[in-house]
Amino acid sequence: MNTEVFNAKTQKENGTQYAGRVIRSGGLVAFPTETVYGLGANGMDGEAVQRIFDAKGRPSDNPLILHVAKKSDVKQLWRHVPDEAKKLMDAFWPGPLTLIFVKSDAVPDEVTAGLSTVAVRMPDHKTALALIRAAGVPIAAPSANISGRPSPTTAEHVLADMDGRIDVVLDGGPCSVGVESTVLTLVGRPTILRPGGITREMLEQVIGEVDVSPAVLRPLREGEVAASPGMKHRHYAPDARVVVAKGSARKAASIICREYEIEEAMGNRCIVLGTEQTRACYHGMNCDIIGDRDDPRTLCAELFAALRRWSGKADVIFAESVDAEEQGLAYMNRLLRAAGFDVIDS
Ligand code: TXA
Ligand code: MG
Question: Are strands 211-212 and 191-194 parallel, antiparallel or unpaired?
């Protein structure tokens, strides 16, 4: 299959109109959102949705998010719209918040992997919204990467994984948030299943107490039921070992310096994903400064791109842990999974 690429700025009208027709006729379109690039298909067409799983090599038990262009579209997708959802949609949509509630009969089983609930979000990105409108249907879309690899935050990342497997890529430049949306279930007590750009603190200001699933910062335990099927699967792995150093900036940096030397002596190629605060600690070492520890949003924006940059080029990628608060929770969730929970404490 030949994958066509459209520039979302210079070929705006043609690109989105054409891509909308591709979606309506059952094809696959990768498109930018504010979080990461999505791999979209007609969310009301089970056969089209199945093609997403085939193109990504995605485990068939992992449900997809439906993307809508206006809030009222949730009425056709959920059995009813709970009050908490109304408040959260008013506060955070369009934006990086996915809401899960009991599905309506209109939603095909392929989207929900057979679950009785469905995840919905309205992305905060002009091209994504224009595409959904052009398609005229909700668009089912996971991240546009081969299953298990870091999520794509540029069109180049999408093509590296998906060239020849999908019909169209809309190139809208780099994504601003850089990690996937916050996933919140409203079935039972509101619970964050995956942290993201909309933080627990922000959600609690609107609906009161919100739980965080315990598996957000640790692996699932043997026999533990996954609140979200996505928790079970290996994620974000580059072709390199990823090692996380715990502790304060200074402590994490000193662990990294020590381990770097050991790995290098064994002939392994090393890279440090450093921060503004620790730049000087890594003098003379291979270091890629990815952001500011005091503003974990900057780290989120760069993490996946940095993992892809060093994938296959380094044997070991070292990274510092940060406090798992506010956007730091999303950062640590992705980093720990990319590392397969390979953490060095002291
Ligand atoms: O920012 C995002 O959310 C991006 C962009 C493209 O919108 N999409 C994305 O999709 O990250 P995906 O498929 O890579 O991640 C969706 C996550 C998975 O962990 C999945 O298990 C979970 O949401 N999920 C989806 N539907 C669910 C449901 N009904 N119940 C529990 N978890 C669900
Ligand atoms: Mg994904």
Answer: parallel
